[in-house]
Amino acid sequence: MVDLFCLAGSVIAFLGLVFSDLCRLQSFIAMWTFYFSLVQISQSFRQQSDELLLEAGFLCILLAPSKLSDPRSPIEDLALLLMKWLLFRFVFASGSVKLASGCPLWWDLTGLKRHFETMPLPTSYSWYTYQQPDGLHRLSTIYVYLSELVCSWLFFAPNQKVRMFAMWWQVFLHLNIIGSGNYGFLSLIVLTLLLTLVDDRELVRTQVKKEPRKEDKRGALTVKVISISMVIGTWLMFGVGYKNGELAFKLLFNRSQYLNMMQMMLRAAPLLVLSLMVQKFLKIVNKQAGVKTVADGIRKLSENWQLFLPTVAAFAVLFTSIVPHLQLTQSTAISSSILTKPYQGLHNLFVVNQYGQHLIKMRPKRLEIILEYSDELTGPWHEYGFQYKPWSQGGSMPYAWVYFPRFDFKFYDASVSKPHNQKWLYPLVQRLLQNEPTVVKLLDEDNVPSRPPKFIRASLYHFSYTSWFDGNSTTFWTRERVNDYFPAYTLADGFLETKLNDIGIPATASTPEAMNLPLKLLMDGVRNFLGIFEGSLLVLGVLMAAFVMILTQRRN
User: Fold this and answer.
1) What would the pLDDT profile of 515-545 be if each residue is shown by its tens digit?
2) How far apart are CA 324 and CA 312, in angstroms?
3) 88 and 269 in contact (C-beta within 8 Å)?
4) How would you class 417 by CB atoms within 10 Å of its CB: exposed for 0-12, middle for 13-18, buried for 19 or more?
5) Average pLDDT of 364-369?
6) Is the pTM of this model over 0.90?
7) What is the DSSP string of 141-187?
């Protein structure tokens, strides 16, 4: 059934991407329902990108027209504004928590350099970026602060040129994020949401050369003023200078001053969006036929349930989303149950979520869990290989692109936690001791035992990047063993079976009887065929096929 949900959602998404006529309300409801079901059963393997996708997907339900004859949704303006608000909340939260946490690495502007080494699933690009001079790293950290704390406000600018400036600024940032780390489809969602900043006229090609409009000239001038202000502001606030042949920095504000400014920005953002929502709502009211007054328009709107219900849902999402936005600091957090209870209800459905919490504290060093197997307690011990996460000194750092390696990613979370807090580890070890094929396939199949081992243990290693100047460019990592992560486990003592019983997982993997055997055989055939391809190549191949079909349609 999991395979069926994945396949059905993928087919609907592919057809909607290729054929715009199929981008309708029913398609987005089906995709959201399938994905919500998958996220519900993913449990420990749910990530921030899943919550962002579900929240954006729900807004697509409000945005999409319900009939083929309808070119647009009647509340399109409200839905697009909510998408901008979601984009702002995600970007602003990612930036605001860094300095608000008081983490010394973010305050001395070395956080980004440390991030390149300690991110969950780094790529070779992050190794090369890590080798850059410290001054460039500090400038890059300031660039990230400007991107998330300043540039995000331009999403709501009335002028198209200003919004395009903000869009390309964010595009450059997220292309670097995609290149440096395997975060799956997270940045792809952000890049898609950035399309809400673009006017339709920017997407239409015309052979006629038009004279620049006054609005465009004002926008171009505004962009220049904003750019100059950012440069001057950076120089003043971060004390940029030059000393002993190197760039020097000295922050001219403290944490208390930053928190005061942040509180003002946190409170101002919802008021700004609410005022824009009211303006767009009044436009919807006045557009109705035969409306002479606002009161008359609201009455007619309440009688049209196809317009009334989505409008109510849009305002409900806006008001409840204020709760996680203001929770970024304790002083601005909302305690009233009038908003917190509806928020909890919508958050349980992942319709409204909180973002940025994983960026609060930067890890001072990289710890990796290495799984080892042996037939004797005294050894020799051999290491399991992983497909994407670092595990050996000579290993590569492959690109997963928009494919999300959840299994490898989960070890990053576990490395700073105790084994008993990671319940998925016990069934993992049990299945590896049984040499369960479906679990073994999650690992690097060139570095797994050919038969079931008798013992499995985990060691914790400290990984560090090699230096560009070491003269050994073929190796990305050095590593040093820290201690045991968990002791040697075996099937003989019954410990794992007891642990699995406590969390309600059977000790032996079993396949229940199929309720629909032909459908099950079809799903097994599809999985076996697609399993031939590496995950990132499969996803990129499907996307390339979609783009080729789109280009072919346009040429025809």
Assistant:
1) 899 999 999 999 999 988 988 999 999 999 9
2) 20
3) yes
4) exposed
5) 94
6) yes
7) HHHHHIIIIIGGGGGG-SSHHHHHHHHHHHHHHHHHHHHHB--TTHH
